[in-house]
Amino acid sequence: MLSIIPGSQPQVSCGVDYITVTAQRAENIRALLYFCEDLEDQEEGCGGIRKPWRWQGFAGSTVGGLSYGFNGTRALCRASGSTARDSAAQLIECADNVARLDVQATVRSGALGRDYAKDLYASLLGVGRGRGRPIARTLITSTYTGDTLYLGRRISDSYGRIYNKSAEEKSDEDPPRWRYEVEYKRKPAFAAAKSFSSAPSADSWCLAEVGAWFDRRDCPLPVSTGSPVGSPGDPRGADAQARRIQWLRQGVRPVVVALAREYGWPDVLALLGVPMAYSDRYVNEVLGPAEDS
Predict the structure, then answer these.
(1) Domain residue ranges of the chain, discontinuous segments joined by +
(2) To bridge 102 with a disulfide, which of 12, 17, 115, 116 should be the other Cys (CB 3.0-4.6 Å)?
(3) pTM above the 0.90 mark?
């Protein structure tokens, strides 16, 4: 666990946390389903259990942070967590529509304690709005999952929440990580997705987008939207890299070894275009000898 000295530079991470896309044009349906099949292999290679999935006429599979299916005319994919973060850009590229997009910025700072949501809610009491309907603000306290401050209404096209991410993950961090998250639905989701996919930097876009949304609701982020972005407690990209390595080890390696035992390592390595000298000793001792034909 990282220790943070009060007053030191806050740690900030951000990204897409949930996405739902659909495809209805033939070329996009093919592209989306092929991409989902690749994601499915990765999730299963990382230990996920593949199960049948059905939802409102769609039939397909669910595994890990991925659910996808086809209803005869359209393909649909839902991704959450690290799966959404790592694949959002490609999913948007395959899609004809984006029905939901959740974007988050997570901050860990010595200035944000366990009662941050309560303190923020108290500071908003009596704060009105210039024009239009007042913003609904709801505080939910929990000793089990941590506190959450909700902004807006769940049925709205955009909906925000600020919650103790460390408590949600049952991580005993002090100070905890606080997540600012915006949930876009319907047309705002599609517009935000297009803006995200065309941005030069996904990190910069996510931080600025979340910051602007909460700033308009009198809850500015406790960091500058120009702050450097990383991943508290873990170098950015380490999770995705670990998942890919595990997928290669559990999903790809057994297939390659089986082929090598049938056809021989030289032919298999040459077919794969492995840029290394063939070593009998390495293959026999580390990967296992191929059977004599």
Answers:
(1) 238-287
(2) 17
(3) no
